[in-house]
Amino acid sequence: MSTATRWLSDDEQRTWRSFLNACQSIFAAVDAQLLRDSGLPHGYYEILVHLSEAPDRALRMSQLARASTFSKSRLSHAVARLEERGWVQRQDCPTDRRGQIAMLTDAGFDMLAAAAPGHVEQVRRVLLDPLTPDQVRQLGEISAAISAAARSGMEVSCSEADLTDLTGLAGLADSGCAGEADDEG
């Protein structure tokens, strides 16, 4: 089954490149502010936020991986760095021998509370303040639609994956098909 490539029109190409530039600019500005003011990369900040919003400030590692932008292996490395700083503590899951729970410590919560005002101000400065309230609402709707389309395009069914292909194995690892119950890391 062959389909013709749907090339981007000139307007679509400009929009795509403008969107990429905007995303890269926002992410760079947010990351630079957090690193400068708190010594904390945005990805680590994201982990602390997810834990701070969870009941008892704790999540299974598999839940934290699904909630964050990290793969399970990258998350494990990031949590290890946060443990070294005393901001996160890992515990064995009481209901599953293979599982682990990441828990935000009081020091981690204090770090997050100190970093949050500068982070929020930077998000306002580079994303929200340049837009009208209607554009902010539209951006939320557009972002939700883009995220939903991207997620549906990335879903890999365990039965559909080609296990002889290394890219298929990588897709399985990130999709959760391989060892979903295994939170170790």
Would you mind describing this structure in some detail?
With 185 residues, the chain is mainly alpha-helical. It has a domain of 120 residues: Arc Repressor Mutant, subunit A, CATH 1.10.10. The longest helix is centred in the N-terminal third of the chain and has 29 residues. The relative contact order is 0.12.
Q: The CATH topology of the domain at 15-134, please?
A: Arc Repressor Mutant, subunit A
Beta-strand proportion: 5-15%
Structural class: mainly alpha
Low-confidence stretches: 156-184
Q: Write the H/E string, N to C.
A: HHEHHEEHHH
Shape descriptor: globular
Helix content: 55-70%
Biggest sheet strand line-up: 1-3-2
Q: Give the CATH superfamily of the domain at 15-134.
A: Winged helix-like DNA-binding domain superfamily/Winged helix DNA-binding domain
Mean of residue pLDDT values: 84
Question: Radius of gyration from the CA trace?
Answer: 19 Å
CATH C-level label of the domain at 15-134 = Mainly Alpha
Cα distance spanning the termini: 42 Å
CATH architecture of the domain at 15-134: Orthogonal Bundle
